[in-house]
From TrEMBL:
One Pfam family recorded for the sequence: ABC_tran
Keywords recorded for this protein, A-Z: ATP-binding, Membrane, Nucleotide-binding, Transmembrane, Transmembrane helix
Gene3D superfamilies: ABC transporter type 1, transmembrane domain, P-loop containing nucleotide triphosphate hydrolases
Annotated TM spans: 37-59, 71-97, 150-171, 177-197, 261-280, 292-316
Protein's cellular compartments: Cell membrane
Protein name: ABC transporter ATP-binding protein/permease
Membrane topology of this protein: Multi-pass membrane protein
SMART domains registered for this protein in UniProt: AAA
InterPro entries in the record: AAA+_ATPase, ABC1_TM_dom, ABC1_TM_sf, ABC_transporter-like_ATP-bd, ABC_transporter-like_CS, P-loop_NTPase, Type_1_exporter
Organism: Streptomyces bobili
Keyword Transferase belongs to the record: no
SUPFAM superfamilies per the UniProt record, alphabetical: ABC transporter transmembrane region, P-loop containing nucleoside triphosphate hydrolases
Domain ABC transporter: 371-605
Amino acid sequence: MTDAAVLGGRAAVPGDDKSTRAAVATMYRLTSGHRGAIGVATVLTLVGSALGLAQPLAAKHLVDAGGRGQVVWPLLALLGALFVTEAATGAAGRFLLERMGEGVVRQLRHRLVGRLLRLEMREYDRHRRGDLISRVTADSTLLREVVSQALVDLVTGSLVAAGAIALMAWLDPLLLLLVSVTVAAAALIVASLLAGIRSASEHMQDSVGAIAADLERALGALPMVRVHRAEEREAAEIGARIEAAYGSGVRTAKLASVMSPAVELAVQGSFLIVLVVGGLRVNGHSGSLGDLVAFLLYASYLVLPLSSVFRAVGLIQRGMGAYRRIDQALRLPVEPTAPRITFTTARKRASGASAPSTTSALSARAEQPALAFRDVRFGYHPDRPVLRGVTFAVAQRQHVGLVGRSGAGKSTVFALVARFYEPDAGHVLFDGQPATELPRDACRRRIAVVDQNTHVVHGTLRDNIAYAVPDATEQEVRRVVQLARLEDVVDRLPGGLAAVIGERGSTLSGGERQRVALARALLARPALLLLDEPTSHLDAINESALTTVMKDVAQECALLVIAHRLSTVQHADRIVVLDDGRVAAEGSHEELLTASALYHELAASQMLRPGGESGSHV
């Protein structure tokens, strides 16, 4: 799908026309790929309905034959066979519809999950994750009921009602006219309620999404919530969302409760009119008792198809609220997978220049830095720049530290390296190639990241370590366990590498989660390893051990480390100092202590002296 234009805070959705016809057309498009099942189910439903319509005729002949004293057993047997066959065909049709509905929802959920996992990172800044998740769960579940029942009920109910009306017209046109007046009154009532039902349903689905988003936020920060005794406050905020959903749901139910009785009262009123007027006409010898019985049965049978039609129309309008939210999610922009072809690249390809040999290509790559920033400018918002012309490079197998005050742009540098965002100006280069001319997958294959907020997922310890390389051998896993100093964790946990780690790694300490993330990154054998505050959860002993690990890692790949603790990067080959989105200074620890006032200030605040000695370990 193409990217949606955002109008007034929401994407323009096909089918925003709130007419029933447009809603039915939109729901019908959802069943693409399942038309065969719908056709068979519709035929079975119509066959069952036709058998149902034949029953009053059989009853008519049964009554007339009984009145004449004739044998009625064959007619009774026929009536019973009609009942049984109708039930069997109806059950088969309903099963096909339910299966089709599950298939449509499965297809939608696959598309939604694939879309949400590939959204541009800016979209996660604009939309709440819990609300997006609810579109995969609650909204798609509502659509299942629409596509599995409402569409076919609308078609078959209309056809069956038309058939019943035609037979009623054949039996007694005058009585049909009286019935039509009451049914038309019910139709007007239903039509006046449909817009309100759709609007209330949309508000209810939005409120359910907000509940999911708020609950996901609170549970994700549960320790903070409890420490600050905010359970009641969070419950009250989420409770307000629940009340909003309740109010919208009650409004939907109120409108639907008015609609159903209107239909039922119309049909029951028709039945009473037919009974009174038809009875008088039979007494006046204007019709037979069998005709009256048949007409009454058709009038009563009209209740089901008419009710199903009106219910289907209401359900489709409710489903449109869910579909709008799903379609909005499916239209959110995703990360482009193909590289951007620049004029220079296109000209080289057009010229047919021969590709360099493998040896010369590897040699050229070795001479290029693993990572380079060239006058990179970027801001999460156009009027608030974060990076203001950053230029630096990380050579192959070089250990580079990135330091500066909070807010200087260090984490933003990592976000650009991982290509979560693209620079507003300037270039990020991998091995001398502009990142925009490479597929994102190729860029990310070169790197591994140990984030400040270590991500540990529910599963075994081995699953977490081997997340990037799920087919890693036991020897490879053991190697990175040793490198990351995780042996004590493996020994402590029951089951070792097979031990199940709780949600968000709740069974591990902060330092242990940090080391798990480090092992996971090392297992991928990246060309460039990014470490964001790798010692933020480590004690002095483990920090010293990590320093040794970083020296070993720098022999295999380039290393770029963000650090607030200067002791973490004091032995780096080079340190880049960021200040207000610019590179303020570069050099070794000793060089910067004398050449950079900002670095000297940072070092003094941590009592870090030349040579890497610390008066007080922070």
